[in-house]
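Following up on my earlier thread - several people asked me to post the actual chain instead of describing it. Fair enough. Here it is, all 176 residues.
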Amino acid sequence: MITLKGPSIWLRALEPEDLEFLYKIENDETVWEVSNTQTPYSKFLIKRYLENAQQDIYEAKQLRLAICKDKDFRAIGLIDLFDFDPRNKRAGIGIVIRHPLDRRQGVGSEALELLIDYAFSKLELHQLYANIDVQNEASITLFTKFGFEKIGVKKDWNLFSGKYRDEAMFQRINHQ
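Reply from S.P.:
Thanks for posting it. Predicted structure:
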């Protein structure tokens, strides 16, 4: 699928072989703050999720793609469209790169650019939004680089390590 291929990465559908990768990323507590995860996932549940991953976005209301480096089938991250609302033509968008060494290498930028283009040109969405912890400067920088604007702050929204933190909502409108 050329639509989801960039100069150095490509986005692909999840495969049964991604079980171990998904298990590690979903159970990595250092990622839980950005994914709003609070409990571990079993391999059984992740395997069932993968078995149903063939549903299209209109059925599942979600599209989760693996981020792969060019010429490599191995996933290094995930990028999602979630809460897909075809009637109002909008979806949430989120991204996570598993290993810190793969971050700040342009992978997230390239993946986000590919998925934004896909969402606006192929799915014909009117808007995308992202919920980002106000202390997550890397994500704020990434999303604002692609035209997302902060439209509000949810006060004391998420509880981390016994302290409440604010979450900002960012939105990008497709003006085409």
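The helical segments are 19-26, 29-35, 43-51, 57-60, 107-121, 137-145. That should answer part of your original question.
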